[in-house]
Write the structure tokens for this entry.
Amino acid sequence: MQWTLVIPLKPLARAKSRLADTAGDGVRPGLALAFAQDTVAAALASAAVAGVAVVTDDAVAGRELAALGARIVPDTPGAGLNAALAHGATAVRAGRPGSAVAALNADLPALRPLELARVLAAAAEFPRAFLADAAGVGTTLLAAGPAHELRPAFGGPSRARHRASGARELDLDAVDSVRQDVDTGADLRTALALGVGPRTAAAAARLLIPEQ
């Protein structure tokens, strides 16, 4: 089974505020874009992925991610993360009815195509499935097979909400790159240790990252 991924990205000027201890206001937009670029590039390199739709109203991000091969879907609902994901899934299925879709975070700069393919292969066994983040509180991926609604409930303790919604939690090891989203300086240090994509590596090299 091949999947179309829906990746939400808020305007870069408002992205990654929790990285304030590591990156200043003038740096965070570029860092958020680098995260998204490396995430999209790795996703498109996965054999399990048929395409990527990025839901965003940011013109710069849209241009840069389209250049990588992503489809850009305007965030016409303008009603937050989960509305954007539902809108993106609807847009994908308008052109490919019944396709398998998965929501993926835009801040997975260490993402590895083979690990993503392993997660998606496991998700294909269930109508809906999700992968918890590295902290064990949130969610980095939510998948819905053909003919099943995505029903995203991202944000905060979304692991519990997705489990309560009936989605199957995927219990997989050795998929750290798919779990490691970046919200804080500590998250960025962990992602760098895993090995990030080239754009994030270049952006992070200009930062003074404090030791843990």
Remarks:
- Residues 3-202 form a domain with the Spore Coat Polysaccharide Biosynthesis Protein SpsA; Chain A fold (CATH 3.90.550.10).
- The longest helix spans residues 28-44.
- The first strand starts at residue 3 and ends at 8.
- The chain has a mean pLDDT of 94.
